[in-house]
Design a protein that fits this description.
It is a single chain. The chain is 75% helix and 0% strand. With 69 residues, the chain is mostly helical. 12% of the residues are buried.
Amino acid sequence: YMRMPADKEARARQESRWKANLEAAYIVDKAHLKFMEGTLDDQEFKRVAGEVNAICPGYAPWQFLVDSR
């Protein structure tokens, strides 16, 4: 995670992963709010779930919410 990439292509892949994680974090914040409200089965949560799964399905905070259901 913190190693310097070997070349430009590796750096681009690393930056892409970081960008996906950041985008997922913003979206998971919305899902986390639904989790705290107890509204995990509404349409908004399902929409957010689809977004997270498309961008970064292995994102750890997302997995926490999914596993906590």
